[in-house]
# Entry
Amino acid sequence: MDKSFDCHMMQETVYYFCIRNGHNYTTAENIIKASPIQEVPDITKSKIVFDGDILFTSAIIKEIDQFQESESLLEYFRNNVSKFGYNHAGATDAIQKLWERIAPKDGLADLEKEKIQQLDIKEKTGRGVWEIFKQILGWDEVDEENRPLYVIHGDRSIKPLLKNNQLLPVVAEKNFPSRQTMEKIIYGRHVKPENIRKTLILIYFYIFLDLQSIQEPERRGLRSGRNSAADRRKADFPEKYDGLPGKCKR
# Structure
């Protein structure tokens, strides 16, 4: 049940508490009115800074599961009101750490360029988000004469390639991982739940495929749903949900 609630939102935390303790909707509304919900920072303007004092969803739920009285919950809110100013901290932290494996000089992205594509990396320092993002999507490939196979016009955006694409439903087009989303996550800015979810999956799959390609080139293309599910659990995301790649009936 806990994965159905975003407990970085006080209102949903109250609903979780009430359902767990058998309280009705009227009780939930009274608790919300008594809570310091108006003091919570605007998550769209705040920045997640990982200084060892992050209140992760799992930690919130662990605390709430011990409460039986509403006053205990309200006291918890009052003591931690500033920490309810963000959500998806676990996923943000996970993506930032994965990016540190991919992006630096001689990171996984550079190793793929050198060992798989047989190309020299000219930059003496790490490459930019846009260059590496194109590489993750496979849009940096060149032909035998070193000419780009995919030409992307505009302001470093993949939207023109997604627009009116018959293979993508509208909801997938809107939430498709992008350079802008990646930059926001890297710098700790708020992004929509579906954006961060799909970015997390994309990064996990890229690292898995990249490691497979570097270590065992003949196995390139294999996918590991089991590894991906374990990684999503660590980042406080459910293992399965509608639209999950590979989720189908057999």
